[in-house]
Amino acid sequence: MKFQKRTPEIAVPEHQKAQRRQTPWGEMSYLEYKHRVEFGQAEYEKIAAHAADRGIAWFASPWDVPSVDFLNSMDVPVHKVASASITDLEPAARRARQRPPGAAVDRHVGACRRSTSPSKRSAPSAW
Which pTM does this prediction carry? Predict the structure, then answer.
């Protein structure tokens, strides 16, 4: 299962924070709305337990440094870099310091590259 993790104060642009929005909870600022929809510790603990009970992995895309730290505290197996965050160097540097890529990651990246090459269009049978 894959999720997104953001810190609303960082993720919401300053000019949008106070904008009023109609939401399922009534009218509120965009920042308030983002706080309502962003999962916190309790929700991620439920996700972790649900995944563990079923023997499946869960992970998330951290969009900022506090989210990187939060996901590391939850001991997720991987961080998926959000496409919109690919050039955001601060979270990337934090991930690199806390979770340096290893041989297993390199092997998986290599398998992905090989499976998407023009000569091979099927996924590898084993990673």
Answer: 0.70
